[in-house]
Design a protein that fits this description.
By secondary structure, the chain is an alpha+beta fold. Helices cover 49% and strands 14% of the residues. The chain binds flavin-adenine dinucleotide.
């Protein structure tokens, strides 16, 4: 069963996993009003591989590199720029087709690809074999994976070994000939309660005295000692919202507690090699920021479209200061698109694995995170105060007041009042809602804070080359050529 059905995926989640949300234990997450939305969003990814539209199915299903059997294309380890470009296409097409991102395999394979690169750099055959066997397990069973990287971290000013207690960073507490035992908690993990497998990668560089924190592995979600404590999401549509006839798409994040969890050796990709903790965290971040910049493009396209449409509904689309703002909006989106494509087109090769260009991935993530609030401000400006105060669908549906709304809430006479109101509500969702505030924080922090991107940009940029050029321009002898 290299390609699973939605039914098989949902059935696999009824496996005794320990999940809590809003203080309650959930026995069957597929039937829960909030977690069920996460499950259905992930299930959307399984609908894509079963699609009857060949242009969709052929994008998401690929032949197994050795056997030719159909597998999900996310399980093809990128070997060249085409493979990377396909990852971007898959992410973007998912959003277009199902209306949300079924982060089903993206983040997990971002972790696994990093584990492959680092196992190769370490030259440890056993880890390479473990990673390969695990990949075959994913391919064969078409599993949903999440990526658990971010530790809870305690006092950010202190390193793991200096913390008040040892568990602020996930670490190895015991080892025997069968495997290792780990303790700690990972936080903000996207779609974790609906995953089959959890992939764990260290969150940062570790030092020699922190070798127990340099640990990477994969473990089934129902393993003894694992508990998911989930974010309460928005839930289903309410009847006061205008919405298209499509389901809510949302992914819940969870804190995953590892309470003395046993991991067999054949599931371990790093254990104690602290010298490589930086490389695995760094390589994961590069793959993951590439995932992020890919999914952001279709999201910000819709938001930019709201600005274009609101300008028209308000009768202002020819006004110069509005056009000036639309130019800034378009430049934000198109810069992101160009950088995303460039990151795929110029990979760095680690053996046979193509890693998206680290400098460009970080520039793109920094671009969308650092300018996102400005982008939102422009949309809010064009839309007007009605984005904060619009009457809702129940007002529109109430015959007592409907005619007032119809009469007074029109804009440009080219468009109906109902369409204007629907577009106001769509725009509100993106720039004036609980969800939009969630996305503002997410855009800054998910896939790493802006300081993390700047650190990587400095590490990847040819600063000395710039300096040498300036010295030559100024007629100064380079430092290296002085006696
Ligand atoms: C919606 C969402 C989904 C996410 N999904 C996932 C996921 O699937 N998997 C996963 O592993 N992670 C995930 N994350 C986590 C994300 O990667 C982190 O939020 C991010 O790395 C920032 O870490 P933090 O939240 O602990 O913030 P903090 O580390 O507390 O950062 C707060 C600020 O402090 C600064 N700071 C922190 N430490 C230091 C230091 N030592 N020195 C100087 N400055 C410092 C940061 O730069 C930042 O400005 C997700 C986050 C969000 C919001």
């Amino acid at each position: 069963m290299a390609i699973r059905s939605v039914k098989e995926y949902k059935e696999s989640l009824r496996d005794g996993r320990r999940v809590y949300i809003r203080g309650e234990k959930v026995e069957d997450i597929t039937r829960h009003p909030i977690l069920g939305i996460t499950v259905d969003t992930i299930a959307g990814g399984y609908e894509l591989t079963a699609s009857e539209d060949p242009s969709v199915r052929d994008l998401f299903v690929a032949p197994h590199p050795k056997t030719g059997e159909p597998i999900n294309r996310y399980f093809v380890t990128p070997a060249n720029r085409e493979d990377l470009a396909n990852r971007t296409k898959m992410i973007q097409r998912s959003i277009e087709v199902i209306g949300g991102l079924p982060f089903g395999r993206d983040i997990g394979t971002d972790c696994l690809n990093a584990a492959f690169v680092v196992a190769g750099q370490m030259g440890k055959k056993q880890y390479q074999e473990n990673a390969m066997n695990f990949l075959e397990h994913l391919r064969k069973n078409d599993l949903h994976t999440c990526g658990a990287v971010t530790c809870v971290k305690g006092d950010r000013g202190k390193e793991p070994a200096q913390q008040k207690h040892p568990d602020y960073y996930l670490h190895v507490v015991d080892k025997n000939k069968e495997g290792i035992v780990v303790k700690g908690a990972k936080i903000h993990i996207t779609s974790a309660p609906a995953a089959n497998e959890i992939l764990v990668v260290p969150t940062r560089q570790m030092r020699e005295n922190e070798a127990d924190y340099a640990v990477s592995f994969a473990i089934p979600a129902n393993t003894k000692g694992i508990t998911f404590i989930c974010r309460g999401g928005r839930g289903a549509w309410s009847d006061h919202e205008f919405h298209a006839d499509r389901p809510v798409r949302e992914l819940t994040e969870a804190m995953i507690v590892f309470d003395n969890v046993f991991v067999p050796w054949d599931r371990v990709f790093m254990c104690g090699e602290w010298q490589y903790s930086m490389l695995i965290a760094y390589t994961f971040a590069t793959f993951h920021r590439f995932t992020a910049i890919s999914y952001k493009v279709p999201s910000v396209e819709v938001m930019a479209g709201c600005a274009v449409a609101m300008a028209k509904y308000n009768g202002l689309d020819k006004v110069s200061h509005i056009r000036d703002k639309l130019a800034d909006i378009a430049a934000y989106v198109e810069t992101l698109r160009a950088l995303t494509n460039a990151a795929a087109a110029d990979p760095v090769m680690y053996g046979e694995i193509a890693v998206p260009n680290p400098l460009i991935c970080n520039m793109a993530k920094l671009h969308f995170a650092s300018k996102y609030h400005e982008f939102i401000k422009l949309i809010q400006d064009i839309g007007g105060g009605i984005l904060a105060t619009a009457p809702d669908k129940k007002d529109w549906d109430n015959p007592d007041i409907h005619d007032y709304l119809e009469h007074y809430l029109g804009g440009s006479e080219k468009y109906s009042t109902l369409d204007r109101l629907k577009m106001i509500h769509e725009t509100m969702r993106h720039v004036c809602s609980h969800e939009s505030a969630f996305h503002e924080v997410t855009t800054v922090h998910a896939e790493g804070s802006m300081a993390a991107q700047k650190m990587m940009i400095l590490a990847e940029s040819p600063l000395q080359q710039y300096e040498a050029k300036a010295m030559a321009a100024a007629g100064i002898t380079p430092w290296s050529k002085r006696l």
